[in-house]
Amino acid sequence: MHRLTRDEARRIAVRAQLLDADRPGDVVEVAEQIGTIKIDPTATIAPAEQSILWSRIGWSFEQPQLTKAVETDRLLFEFDGGFHPSSLLPVLVPRMRQRKLRDATVQWMRANDAFRRDVLARLRADGPLLAADIPDTSAVAAASEGGWYGTNAVPRMLEILMLIGEVAIVGRVGRSRRWDIAERVYPSDLPDISYEDAGRRLEERRLQAAGIARRRSPWTPVGEAGEAAEVEGSAWKWRVDPEALAAMDTDPGGRVAILNPYDGMLYDRPRLQELFDFTYVLEQFKPKAQRRYGYFAHPVLVGDRFIGLLDAELDRKRETLVVNALHELVPFDEEETEMVHAEIRELGEWLGVPVTGL
Predict the structure, then answer these.
(1) Is the pTM of this model over 0.85?
(2) Of 36, 86, 147, 229, which has the highest C-beta tally within 10 A?
(3) Organism's domain of life (predicted)?
């Protein structure tokens, strides 16, 4: 049983997410460590997949590096709303092929079996294709799923076929995905791993990305991966990555990191509260009158503490990064103010625009 102070637990979590002073060198290194780079088009500053990588690599990151890693080098692949390292394919593909769908989805697929065969045949003959290139021959329309899907059932069918490993995304044209049958996208020589063994390996990779996580967390399920740990002042049962523990003596220290609201560091909200005493509420879907920090406020991490929230937006007409507010969750001292302002100015330089409002 490892016994950790809160400071140690926070530093392990920060380093696991590559948010310490030792910045990674490229997009593949980031993906290999953190597992998933979330894709989201909301771009008050930049889309999630771009700002997540900038938060780690810094000014040298450019979007073509990500495109090349996915579409040319095939070192990353897109699946279920994120970019993942191709080293995860041996454990993800068995899970895809044995995935259990919800009853309503199973019924919809049965009612649209001919439509499913039409989509696969079209991709096999003419792929890769955009969803717009595939006719909608569905017998039953796609469920609205809370408004995420329109009347065209093709995107819904493609996403379900992706989840069960029958089709895959090969790249994008702008924000539109290009689809093909999975056998032409995923390697044919993947090792034969059982569903259960694949699940255990995925838990190990999740713990690698988290550094430390609750043993039975619905947000970061790590099961028995890693080693047992206690954290000072916490009653939770923790699991910690042994490699992260071994690296504690070489901690390079912290830095300022401005995080996209969909950053993986923020995903496990209960862990944020338990370890960092940080309650983060994304106000994107709140009525404007109920927002306290802004539509898409980016948390500001300094070392191992969340000390502020940046409400800023890229004004494309004026080619300026406008800082609407920099909320101090705790009063900034002079050094923290200077460091945070410098990071915001670096964000502007990466975007290629000046910063106003600081």
Answers:
(1) yes
(2) 229
(3) Bacteria
